[in-house]
TrEMBL record:
Catalytic activity: N-(5-phospho-beta-D-ribosyl)anthranilate = 1-(2-carboxyphenylamino)-1-deoxy-D-ribulose 5-phosphate
E.C. designation(s): 5.3.1.24
The organism of origin for this protein: Parasedimentitalea huanghaiensis
Name of this protein: N-(5'-phosphoribosyl)anthranilate isomerase
Pathway: Amino-acid biosynthesis; L-tryptophan biosynthesis; L-tryptophan from chorismate: step 3/5
Keyword terms of this UniProt record: Amino-acid biosynthesis, Aromatic amino acid biosynthesis, Isomerase, Tryptophan biosynthesis
Length: 217
């Protein structure tokens, strides 16, 4: 049994959920961000979440969402975690945790060393951290850009105060190198398991998950 936990983000079909769960993903992510090709409606997300087997953590990804948006998402969709992928302040993270009673994962964008202190700041308030590549300036999306950051920045920093996941540009081919270089025990992927933006590829979901979990072909 592997110690690695895999999150597949941006799932939009029943097949995506079934494939991710069967392959052994620990988390499935639903994107609530209208500009994203991975955006799902409340109705679709509710149906997809209901298909996730017990024990698979259902994560709603939002970007600087208001309380009314979060109220609607949490009322419609059975969730286990909220992922905040915008510029939510530490105070806002605390407020969201208290208001919804769900664990909160805060995404931190990393481009260079100057970004690393954010990890400690958000460690004090979030339940988990998702350490991702910082989006390029003028990017349409704050995440899901298929870009990796320099993993050497995290080398030797295995033990943060909170559980964390490595994200950004991972693929079935690179995920093991990312795990090895950073010492992470959790990985997240979106673009690297797609055949086109927003379209998950079942074979890539399987190969990414199996590769991360150290399972043979
Ligand atoms: O995936 C999106 O479309 C998205 C949109 C808005 C904010 C965040 C988004 N994705 C965040 C994720 O958790 C991705 O899985 C993470 O950034 C890694 O993405 P990728 O580099 O494509 O594997």
């Amino acid at each position: 049994m592997s110690d690695i936990r895999v999150k597949i983000c941006g799932l939009r079909t029943a097949d995506d959920i079934e494939t991710a769960a069967k392959a052994g993903a620990a988390y499935v992510g639903f994107v609530f961000f209208a500009k994203s090709p991975r955006h799902v409606s409340l109705e679709d997300a509710a149906e997809l979440a209901a298909l996730a087997p017990m024990g698979v953590c259902k994560v709603a990804l939002t970007v600087n969402a208001s309380n009314s948006e979060l109220d609607a998402i949490t009322a419609a969709v059975p969730l286990d975690m909220l992922q905040l992928h915008g510029s939510e302040s530490p105070e806002r993270v605390t407020e969201i945790k208290a208001r919804y009673g769900l664990p909160v994962m805060k995404a931190i964008g990393i481009a260079d060393e100057a970004d690393l202190p954010q990890i400690d700041i958000y460690s004090a308030v979030a339940d988990q951290l998702l350490i991702d590549a910082k989006p390029p300036k003028n990017a349409d999306l704050p995440g899901g850009n298929g870009l990796a950051f320099d993993w050497r920045l995290l080398a030797g920093r295995k033990y943060w105060q909170r559980p964390w996941m490595l994200a950004g540009g991972l693929t079935p081919e690179t995920v093991n190198e990312g795990i090895r270089m950073t010492g992470t025990s959790q990985v997240d992927v979106s673009s690297g398991v797609e055949s086109a933006p927003g379209v998950k590829d079942q074979a890539l979901i399987e190969s990414f998950t199996r590769s991360a979990l150290g399972k043979q072909g």
